[in-house]
Amino acid sequence: MTFADxxxxxxxxxxxxxxxxxxxxxxxxxxxxxxxxxxxxAAYYRRRAKGGVGLILxxxxxxxxxSASGYRRCPAFxxxxxxxxxxxxxxxxxxxxxxxxxQLWHVGPFRTPNMAPYPDExxxxxxxxxKPDAERVGEPMTDSQIADVIEGxxxxxxxxxxxxxxxxxxxxxxxYLIDTFFWPATNLxxxxxxxxxxxxxxxxxxxxxxxxxxxxxxFPILFRYSPARDRT
Length: 232
Ligand SMILES: Cc1cc2nc3c(=O)[nH]c(=O)nc-3n(C[C@H](O)[C@H](O)[C@H](O)COP(=O)(O)O)c2cc1C
Fold this sequence. Notes:
By secondary structure, the protein is α/β, with parallel strands linked by helices. It is built from six helices and seven strands, in the order βββαβαβαβαααβ. It has helices at residues 39-50, 80-95, 143-162, 177-182, 197-200, 202-215; strands spanning 11-13, 16-18, 23-24, 55-61, 99-104, 168-172, 221-225. The chain is globular and about 50 Å long. The chain binds flavin mononucleotide (FMN). Residues 25-28, 59-60, 103, 171, 173-174, 224 line the site of flavin mononucleotide.
């Protein structure tokens, strides 16, 4: 036995069955015009599964919330055309012996103002900040905007289940929307979503709970986290 052998052992937990423990990191590709992943996207992920990756995390994709996307050609995870592309992608990967989960990514303060296809939508963040002591990029999120984002994650997680994905990953890292709630320097809120560590984590917890309620007890939820910023 070598130190690498465990990587090649199958993995099973509840409904998740993986042929090995090799996981492909989520990597933004920006190859989806009109936010719709096409045959080339499906073929790209299928090749990775065929090459032996046990679990593929897709590029960051937008949950169903109009301010979620910050980049042209970043695929959506809502709307019939995009979901049809994702259905084909999941089927292609599964047929090649792999498993795939979308990474749901709300870019929050990284969104370019006036961005297509929803130029009138505001840029969302806990306190209008992309980084400490910087120019404001928007207004602090209202309660209804917070509820709308949570609902968007829940809806897209359910689409992932319905489209044949093996689970879902929530992008809570790298300074994007969820991470800016964790970080005291970008979360200056005085309500129940800011202040103590527990309050700064509330937004993320509400997203995970809403997703869990929607997808049921056995559908895997992964959460990507940048611990360096979340200092209590
Ligand atoms: C081109 C590129 C795009 C990336 N896009 C994402 C992304 O969409 N979501 C994400 O969480 N990380 C993204 N990352 C970070 C990777 O998931 C990973 O953490 C990084 O490449 C470091 O991997 P390593 O620790 O194996 O070197 C991206 C990295 C690269 C190189």
